[in-house]
Amino acid sequence: IKIKITNIDIPVAFASAFEGEIIRRGDMQVEFDGSRVDCCELVMTKDASEIEDHKITLVGPDIDEMPVGSKQSICYVVEVAGKSMQSDFEPVFERKFHSYLNCVEGMMHTGQRDMIRIRVSKETFEAGFRAKHIGEVLYAKVKSEFAAVVDKCQVTIYTDPAECTRVRHEVAMSLFDKRDERLNTLTDEGVDVYYSCIMCQAFSPSHVCVVTPERLGLCGAVSWLDAKATNELDPQGPCQVITKERPIDERIGEYEDVNEAVQKLSQGALEDVSLYSIIEKPMTSCGCFECICGIEPLSNGVCIANREYAGMTPIGMTFSELASMTGGGVQTPGFMGHGKHFIASKKFMKAEGGVARIVWMPKELKEQVAERLNATAKELYGIDNFCDMIADETIAEDPETLLAYLEEKGHPALTMEPMM
Ligand code: SF4
Ligand code: ZN
Predict the structure, then answer these.
(1) Across the chain, what does the average pLDDT equal?
(2) For a substitution probing ligand 1, which of 199, 206, 212 has the most ligand atoms within 8 Å of its CB?
(3) Terminus of the chain with fewer CB atoms < 10 Å: N or C?
(4) What ipTM did this prediction achieve?
(5) Residues 72-88: pLDDT tens digits?
(6) Where in the chain do CATH 3.40.1470.10 domains reside?
(7) Is 227 in the pocket of ligand 1 (CB under 6 A)?
(8) 410: phi > 0 → left, psi -120 to 50 → alpha, else beta; which?
């Protein structure tokens, strides 16, 4: 492989060739694990006077003071300033950290926000890699990739456990909540434009996501605000403005402008898409959807499986079996990839009657979305505790047992219009 080393002051190589690198337990010097201890990564916009450019600070022990193979806390806060900087850009920068840190030889990064996990290999540690080098990578990449909006940048890395607890709970979580609230107040009707995203065309050449306030990208990582920020940061980039001035069919969410954009961006592979239907002209799926939903004919509803779920669904297929027939950038009526956040959206399958069609979900996913989904069902249909009516793998893995449960609970899908 050809390795292009960019000019970053670290003792190991930096190249996209390392992005897929796996670091096994036995090969790791140290692991930072947000699912077990307090971790987070965040970008904060500051006034230029508060920032000393290229200052990198470590608060807490360095990697050579951590026991080999141990699980540690880490929070890194990247503070930026610039005349054109906006706080809406912060999550877009953060999302890039995953790829930046994975480009470091002997470093593995997964997740985002406070659910990150990072491994540093023994070899990379022995080459001299220390905590401050994380700061060097983030500084160099943010300064070069976002030069148009970032004039000054400084990075603080916290490894002291008490400081990590403070930063995560007192700084990061409220910032993340504020961002989510801002998005939750936006509706599809309330905005003038939607955005396309074609970031996945690298491996799904005809795939186009249409991102709206109430329907995020199917990877779960690109909200309407993120797409908007991406477009402002790079007007020729992967996210383009789509107007919505010429509706064709409000029921399924079809627009002439959206169809034209999708035709152009898919190089003619796609004719038309709807935003709110799983049966009529559904949106395409690439490969990185967080969830798939598919029709379960006996119950007149849909089952949803998330990527983490390895078991069987009442449709008779596992997540990966569903994925193999849904992905690849083609329209598959009756099946659709989507983000987790979309499950509780008032626009979820709106054309087919909305979230009341959901009859089955893995237990873990149900718990993750319960609060928001219950609120949506209450608002749309006046149903309390809707999630109690939805079956999971502990209740049913076949259509007959599923149907019996739904009948017992009086699930609304049973009395809705036939879907097919
Ligand atoms: Fe963009 Fe959609 Fe790919 Fe997410 S899944 S990166 S929104 S094209
Ligand atoms: Zn994708």
Answers:
(1) 95
(2) 199
(3) N
(4) 0.99
(5) 999 999 999 999 999 99
(6) 193-415
(7) no
(8) left
